[in-house]
Amino acid sequence: MTDESTFLLLLLASGVAFMFAVLLWKLLITTVGIATTQWAVVTGLPDHPALHAITFAVPALLAAFTLLYLPRIAARGAARPTVRSTRVLLKGAHR
User: Fold this and answer.
1) What is the CB neighbour count within 10 angstroms for residue 56?
2) How far apart are CA 44 and CA 33, in angstroms?
3) Between 41 and which of 12, 55, 56, 95 could a Cys-Cys bridge form, CB atoms 3.0 to 4.6 Å apart?
4) CA distance 57 to 4
């Protein structure tokens, strides 16, 4: 490997590592926000079991939706063929 290809490989690896660090940071901040909200509702309103159920159920349902349905939606969107009109491309080329 040459020095240039080694540099490009290291640049790619550092970019991927940075992307994962940002995603993990966003996940951590979201988790802290959900946990803080749940703690505040449970300690602030101890006599409301319906509110406790909603406080714990909404994040769980959102997590279940995210884990179950979003990968299917993303896969379905990626599987659609993109059709580009050749007429539009040719019209722009003749000007």
Assistant:
1) 14
2) 16
3) 55
4) 52
